[in-house]
Amino acid sequence: MKYIVVLIDGMADEVIESLDNKTPLEYANIKHMDELAQVSELGMVQTVPKNMPPGSDVANLSIMGYDPYQYHTGRSPLEAANIGVNMLPSDVIFRCNLVTVSDHERFEDKLMVDHSASDITSEEARMLLLDLKAELETSEISFHAGTSYRNIIVWHEGHLDLDLKPPHDFLNQTLENHMPTGAAWIEDFTRRSYEILNHHPINEARRAKGLNPANCIWVWGEGKKPLLDNFETLYGLKAATISAVDLIHGIGVCAGMESIHVEGATGTLHTNFKGKANACINALRNNKDFVYLHLEATDECSHQGVLEDKIKAVEIIDKDVVGYLIEQLKHQNMDFRMMILPDHPTPIRLRTHTSDPVPYLIYDSTQAIKGENAYHERVCKNTGNYFASGPELMKYFLKTSK
Predict the structure, then answer these.
(1) How far is CA 216 from the centre of its chain?
(2) How do strand 336-341 and strand 2-8 relate by DSSP bridges?
(3) How far apart, in whole angstroms, are the C-alpha atoms of residue 362 and residue 337?
(4) Using one digit for the tens of pLDDT, what is the confidence trace for 77-124?
(5) What is the C-alpha separation between 291 and 277, in angstroms, rounded?
(6) Residue 119: which residues within 8 A CB-CB, separation 6 or more?
(7) Are strands 290-295 and 258-260 parallel, antiparallel or unpaired?
(8) Nearest to residue 42, comparing CAs of 322, 294, 358?
(9) Which of 312, 305, 107 is nearest to 217 (CA)?
(10) Which residues contact 13 (CB under 8 A, 6 or more apart)?
(11) Helix axes 307-316, 297-304, angle to 10 degrees
(12) CA 252 – CA 245 distance, rounded (Å)
């Protein structure tokens, strides 16, 4: 038996009046997921534990079967693990976003315009990081280039008595009420980065193309070196992750999973969806028992507040990922179980994550059951099926197939 988790990041949402009082998932044309719903188990799962922030780190750890209360040490260390950053137990690791802020003269009056600087390319980001390193790096604080706007800072012998806000939590708001506190160097680096980056040649070229400049850094997501139990030891399955996001691969690396990187995978609406699906099939054919296939586009569209693109992303995933996987796996006579779900809601109205339960679908190719007429939040809630945590759902997903 093979196992596939299709994780559609931030897909869950609220009812929207302009969509005839439906959610984006309910409104979208998702023929393949709706067909699966008719022969699958549907329900709701609480992926984010109480009193924990609804970040993708917490939610995906939970869904992968790791209790965040026990295993979560911060988001950034997981990303750092994926890009090979050497971490000591005394290090504090941070996410360093390349962001776009407005040109208001007083720094605190600037607006957080874009948490991803128009999804800046990794090559452009790497060049900006080199100049930041030259101006700001010290023996205590080091920069490490990641993917696109997602980069890493390591503070050697640092502490965690900090108050840092994710930039996607206050889009189009001033920086004044969200400035970092707890370490003077973080605010200093933030201010100085604007001076270094605002008129950088790369950013002037981006402005000329109508793209947002990566004219500031934003430091957040602090944490320490993670230590996860090996996934194969826990569940007896050889596993792999497929994603465009360092965080997901970082969790996989710490859990002993293979990281599969797909050419053209960007984490946006324009990612290589079909390539990811093919990579999943190839992994299952090549001795992998479990694949965690992560799709970021729906979350990015939600953060940008573009409803039409979120719906489009859901529909593309339905056709080019879910539909394609089902067709190919059945063609190869492969017995499999597939679970489809988001990690957390990212409502378009809020443009950030919430902690509400999310809808799941579990399909077993060897055992069709009487399901529901569609897959979306309302139907899943009405089934009455409910899991109080991601680890409980993961154990159920794997155990019930044996």
Answers:
(1) 22
(2) parallel
(3) 7
(4) 999 999 999 999 999 999 999 999 999 999 999 999 999 999 999 999
(5) 11
(6) 148, 149, 266, 267, 268, 300
(7) unpaired
(8) 358
(9) 107
(10) 23, 24, 25, 302, 310, 345, 346, 347, 348, 377
(11) 170
(12) 11
Name the pLDDT band for 402 (thresholds 50, 70, 90). Answer: very low
Look up residue 89 and give its amino acid. P
| CA dist., res. 383 & res. 393, Å (int) | 16
Task: Spell out the residues 6+ positions from residue 146 whose beta carbon is closer than 8 angstroms to its own.
Answer: 79, 83, 122, 125, 152, 246
Report the run of H or E that residue 144 belongs to, with start and end. strand 141-147
3-state SS assignment for residue 112: strand
Class of domain 2-73+228-399: alpha beta
Assess contact for 96 and 217: CB atoms under 8 A. yes
The domains of the chain are located at 2-73+228-399, 92-223
C-alpha to C-alpha distance for 293 and 5, rounded to whole angstroms: 6
SS3 25: helix
- Read off the amino acid at residue 145: A
In terms of DSSP bridges, do strands 150-155 and 141-147 run parallel, antiparallel, or are they unpaired? antiparallel
Q: ∠ CA 396-400-401 to the nearest 5 degrees?
A: 125
The one-character DSSP state at 38 is: T
Measured distance CA(382)–CA(280) in Å, rounded:
31
Compute, in degrees rounded to 10, the torsion defined by CA atoms 264, 8, 293, 241: 90
How far apart are alpha carbons 359 and 68 in whole angstroms? 20
- pLDDT tens digit sequence for 155-170: 999 999 999 999 999 9
Instruction: Transcribe 58-70 into DSSP letters.
Output: HHHHHHTT--HHH
